[in-house]
Backbone:
């Protein structure tokens, strides 16, 4: 079970994906926030300082790569798992060069996604402990 203090932000333009991820991640014990686009997502990151961001790569307006660039500018790009239905290697490589932790392709396996979230948050908490200690 997740640390009740762990926060996850889901940035996706599809309401069904946001609802699904809120339901699944909340059941795992995370506090979950959502944003329907990159602009909202950047503001949510500033407002909530999530432990992890799950973000769609293809969104209207500010897409995932542009959003990731802005998160990198504010020092939050290392907490991102990109989601893509397209499996476009060039975009995935670009996202990882900008600091994204990893990516998962849609449709994704919920169990696999939860494991990725748990591993990344555990890694984030370990690095926090190392900085404090």
Residues:
């Amino acid at each position: 079970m997740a640390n009740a203090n762990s926060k996850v932000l889901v940035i996706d333009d599809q309401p069904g994906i946001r609802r699904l991820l809120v339901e699944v991640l909340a059941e795992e014990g995370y506090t979950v926030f959502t944003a329907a686009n990159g602009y909202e997502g950047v503001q949510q990151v500033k407002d909530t300082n999530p432990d992890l961001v799950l973000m769609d790569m293809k969104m209207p307006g500010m897409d995932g790569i542009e959003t990731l660039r802005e998160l990198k500018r504010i020092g939050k790009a290392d907490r991102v798992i990109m989601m893509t239905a397209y499996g476009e290697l060039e975009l995935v490589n670009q996202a990882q060069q900008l600091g994204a932790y990893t990516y998962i392709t849609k449709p994704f396996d919920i169990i696999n996604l939860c494991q990725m979230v748990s591993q990344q948050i555990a890694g984030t908490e370990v690095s926090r402990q190392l900085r404090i200690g």
Summary: The chain has five helices and five strands.
